[in-house]
Protein 1
Amino acid sequence: MKTKAICSFFVLFAIAAVMISSTPAAFADHAEVTIATSEDAMSPDCGSECYTPSTATVDVGGKVIFSNPTGFHSFTAGTVDGFTPNPTEEFDTGVLEPGQSGEWIATTVGEVPYYCSLHASYMFGTIIVQEAHADEAAEAAEAAEAAEAAEAAEAAEAAEAVLMVTITDSVVDDGTQVDLEFSELHVNYEITATQNGEEIYKETAHSMEMTTSHMVDAIGSDDSPIDIEIVSLGIGPPDAEADWTGPLGSVATSQIVPEFGTIAMMILAVAIISIVAVTAKSRVVPRF
Ligand SMILES: [Cu+2]
């Protein structure tokens, strides 16, 4: 019963969402537009809105209705040069009596100015004829552009991906177990252990999981700590080097000293290196 109620709520929600999302498209259409003469258009008092709206938009193939509720006016396509009317003949309703109307089907994209033949000195309007669904096309283009921008931002973010490694160690028998925890899966990396300026361990590895371990055959001491360095080679399957992504370069270094005991000691979680910063080896790393 409860499930049913929840389901019907979601159905209602979905219907509402569809209605909301389809509404702008419906408003964006200009299949038909009505232009009316203003009530006070018998004198220049009507100002810029002698025809209402004075600028109307219609799709190619759309219908313009010329409405004349009061007074005597015409809708005559053309311009007026001083006192000389220049009709262009797209349409001319002739003088309409109060309550009469006319109509015109737009056929060509463009702007059609018009005037009233009785009040040519002050009564003007413009009809903008546009491709059908021009608004929707513009909207779609805008949406596509936004999507593209989001994608680019995502790509940029991926390029700046951060790879972090936590190095933990513990003394096991007469060696040191170095545990690594990566912030990403499938990290290809090189691990190097150095003691007394001597490289005692070096391996290139791939971490199938977030965590992985290495056994170093030495124990660090105050006098001769072990330095661990992890260098990222890229993230991806081990046999597809060309597709590797992510940060390259030194990701983390740490120094293993024994006085904190043999139990796991979190030494370091450091280094944030973007692809660009391959020179990250010179990065300052906190030492313990
Ligand atoms: Cu008029």
Note: DSSP finds two helices and 17 strands in the chain.
Protein 2
Amino acid sequence: MPTNLCVVGATGKFGRSIISLTDSSIKVTGAVSSDTNPLVGKPITDVGGKSPSVLITRASEIERAAANSDVVLFVSTAISDLNNIPKIIQLDKRIVVGTTGFDTTQYERLRSMLKEVPSVLTSNFAVGANILFRIAKLLSGFSDIYDYSIIEHHHKMKSDAPSGTAKTIHEILNSQAAFSRVVTDRTMKPKRDHGEIEIFSLRGGGTPGIHQLILAGEYERIVVEHLAFSRAASAVGALIACKWIASKMSPGIYSMQDVLNLNDPKSAT
Ligand SMILES: NC(=O)c1ccc[n+]([C@@H]2O[C@H](COP(=O)([O-])OP(=O)(O)OC[C@H]3O[C@@H](n4cnc5c(N)ncnc54)[C@H](OP(=O)(O)O)[C@@H]3O)[C@@H](O)[C@H]2O)c1
């Protein structure tokens, strides 16, 4: 049986990529855009979908779009997700959220909603990026020896900085050591103090997403890099997450580390 999926943000760059990569194991049964999108009422074939009978629905009718789905995937905007997710929880659907750009308060609200149903929340669906998260955990305990930096590169239209993935790498490092002082610009503070972490954002062209974790020591340096060739890297991971959560019965928030079985059995995260 295929997983029935509703994509919220179907007309966006990421939503289109996800919809165009669906195969016989996952069927798009709903697609949602903002209320004002000119594609409202048009078939999902206009955004790369396979079934001309499924039409793009405005956000104010999200319940109708989600009615036939097992899983609702959010890849839209932080504000709209906070409005729309409670309506989907009312329908008792499984939820996957890949939207980024939530501030701390919004993120807490999001998490308190998502724990009501089986859900996946991640800043990066790409399998390789999640292997990078696993490596970041392994590398997190050496702050006495190395200075840590995160550099992220993205296309020039990206609406948030630093990227959600860079923030996740920072959180993972912080769970082991004290990198509480984030430096995003060296202009006013050229010299480095202990306990700092540099997080630098580069924006240019159509770069789909590069993340580098750099550990610089006195005599050696480690660089771990994840480079997505295209949005398809994340889109494939999003579809893996949607299929995985479809069979989960227990409410709670799962990560891509859970989906990909990348958790350290010895740790409780
Ligand atoms: N987790 C990951 O691996 C990953 C990977 C890539 C992107 N992302 C994140 O996914 C999100 C979307 O990225 P994108 O590049 O596709 O952005 P985008 O091209 O700007 O698309 C945003 C989508 O959200 C829709 N939207 C806007 N307001 C809405 C509302 N009120 N209700 C429902 N939908 C609404 C837009 O509809 P209109 O076109 O009608 O405005 C559009 O479909 C961003 O937060 C991005 O950072 C995450």
Note: The CA atoms of residues 142 and 250 lie 36 Å apart.
